[in-house]
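Notes to self after the Tuesday call (sharing in case useful).
The group wants a holo model before anyone commits to mutagenesis around the pocket. I volunteered. Ligand is S-adenosyl-L-homocysteine. Logging inputs and output together so the record is complete.
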Amino acid sequence: MIEFSSQIISPISSIGIIHSCYPEKFGIPRQPGLVKSSSGRLELFPPWNREEMIKGLDVFSHIWIQFLFHEAVAEGWRPTVRPPWLGGQKRVGIFASRSPHRPNHLGLSVVRLTGIRKEKKGLFLEIAEIDLLDKTPVVDIKPYIPYSDSVPGASDGFIPPPESVRREVVFAEAAAQSCSEYEQRTGRRLRSLIAETLGQDPRPASQRHQTREYGMTLWDVNVRWQALGERFLVLLIGEE
Ligand code: SAH
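Result:
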């Protein structure tokens, strides 16, 4: 008798880990490509950190990263979710969404590959335009192939184009000053990272009309900000 079991899958182990400018979930863009100044590194673990395993990858501008939504695993999965795109009101099926709360908690992001570094500490892929939390476990990497991975004329479904939610971000004097000091010391483009990250309005749909103060961490920096009419004002920047 032939038995089909939905339970049998090949075991999956992580081949690497993400080091990201986003140390906490709040603020992370809803998809890759939205925040051009976001960046991080993908560190490969042994035995997958052999240079031969990424031979030829450097000629691609973008890669697919398959990963585990590790911080959603403990929260379990849900049959339906309320995507932020629909104002947090309407429900859609989990398989009609990109929500982390899915069976197996697997995520998929196309990111820019900006470099490959071999260091004493290991083998690293430098990546940008990410939507990944720091310490995200990675399960696979593949090159992005434009002719087949991008489909001209494909329907956006219920997901609005990102320009329709973009906000203008302004900086208070003190915040702007701290930003440029941090940039000079670290070489990181903090100001544009803050502006682009806030520009895609990270607030939950239910809080879109509030004016309270928010905190968000980028790299090792605490950012305090609030809504000021249609714009967002960055009040203060402090290091951890
Ligand atoms: N591009 C991916 C992810 C979309 S969901 C995909 O389509 O599969 C994006 C959200 O996932 C982010 O806003 C962030 O809050 C969340 N996220 C990113 N990395 C995560 C992780 N390791 N664990 C839990 N949630 C994560």
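Two things stood out.
The longest strand covers residues 106-119.
The pocket of S-adenosyl-L-homocysteine is lined by residues 25, 28, 30-32, 69-72, 98, 100, 107-109, 131-133, 136 (CB under 6 Å).
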